[in-house]
Amino acid sequence: MRELMVWLWVVLDHWQVLITGGATTALLVIVQAKRQKAFSWSLCRGVFFIFLLWAFFASWRDEHRARAIAEIALRDTKAAIEKANNQVPQLQHSGVETNQTSSGTKSPNISGTNGGVSLRYGPQAKP
Predict the structure, then answer these.
(1) Which residues contact 122 (CB under 8 A, 6 or more apart)?
(2) What is the pLDDT of residues 53-96, one digit of tens each?
(3) Are 100 and 77 in contact (CB under 8 A)?
(4) How far apart are CA 28 and CA 13, in angstroms?
(5) What whole-number distance in Å separates Cα of residue 25 and Cα of residue 19?
(6) How far is Cα 123 from Cα 127, in angstroms, rounded to an integer?
(7) Coil, strand or helix: which one is 127?
(8) What residues are paired with 114 via a beta bridge?
(9) Domain segments of the chain as ranges
(10) Is the pLDDT of residue 20 over 60?
(11) pTM of the model
């Protein structure tokens, strides 16, 4: 229901701009003043209806443009994340072992690869 009210508000906003201050309205006022005769009620209803149709279209166009811009921004963001992920080297762990030291404590011995380079960490690690 909220979305419907927002849409109606947008349509009303577009319509009131057209009906109260557009170039077409100004032209109609000038023509009416020049003729020195009021327009017929059927012409006024026709202008009202045409402006309402244009307001419907304008509200759709606003939403369509906003969605297109959001989709482009999303695509660019996904591409940037993908590029950043491809630039960060991934460390692949092959395992964690604990070694008993001479003092009786255990220390970790971690091994893995980073881009094909073998890595070993720990007090007993050997190249």
Answers:
(1) 99, 107, 108, 109, 110
(2) 999 999 999 999 999 999 999 999 999 998 888 776 655 555 55
(3) no
(4) 21
(5) 6
(6) 12
(7) coil
(8) 91, 117
(9) 2-87, 92-121
(10) yes
(11) 0.56
